[in-house]
Design goal:
Oligomer: single chain
CATH class of the largest domain: Alpha Beta
Number of domains: 2
Strand content: 5-15%
Structural class: mainly alpha
Shape: globular
Helix content: 40-55%
């Protein structure tokens, strides 16, 4: 298949640059990637996302990576033991600070399935954690994010979102960053 670069010319250009950096032709890189597997854990939603990624890469970049599915426990072990080509990942944080997501990619973090390691990144995260000055904290996190995005050890595909409709007369309810709804102090305001 010939890739359709009409809608994503930057992706096709970057793909060609990546091939050149690896000392390959675009055709060789396509062949290499077609022999690899995109692994995901059992879930209809994860299967649909994997199929979408597979088809997008096929249409835009001209290769069709194989898909692999594993039950959750096996999938976790496979990722932990670095026995995958490309694997689905997903992370949530339970507090309102970007460090909750960025620190995942530090050396030794058990969730760093990408096995990303950059001493400069780790130092920025360490400095952000140590700072009590919010301006310094967030400046270090922005710098760390820039490094992470430069090397792209992960491919962000989507983020979770949901909607909650609440009537204006419902008062004092709360919601955590993870989506848990707290009605323990909620009441309905009389009109």
């Amino acid at each position: 298949m010939v890739a359709d670069d009409s809608n994503f010319p930057a992706a096709v250009t970057l793909f060609a640059e990546a091939a050149a950096e690896m000392g390959m032709t675009v055709a060789q890189l396509r062949t290499t990637l077609a022999a690899e597997t995109l692994l995901y854990n059992t879930s209809e939603a994860h299967a649909e996302v994997a199929q979408l990624v597979q088809e997008s890469w096929n249409q835009v970049l001209g290769f069709q990576m194989q898909l692999g599915n594993q039950d959750w426990a096996i999938f976790q072990e496979t990722r932990k033991n670095d026995q995958f080509d490309v694997a689905r990942g997903g992370w949530l944080t339970d507090f309102m600070d970007p460090i909750g997501m960025l620190a995942i990619f530090t050396e030794g973090n058990s969730y760093n399935d990408a096995n990303y390691y950059d001493p400069a990144f780790d130092l920025l995260i360490e400095q952000a954690q140590a700072s009590t000055d919010p301006a310094v904290h967030f400046a270090k996190l922005y710098d760390a994010q820039d490094l992470l995005m430069e090397f792209m050890p992960i491919i962000p595909v989507y983020h979770y979102s949901d909607f909650m409709y609440v009537k204006a007369y419902l008062k004092d309810w709360g919601r955590s960053v993870l989506g848990t709804v707290d009605f323990s102090r909620a009441y309905i305001e009389a009109e």
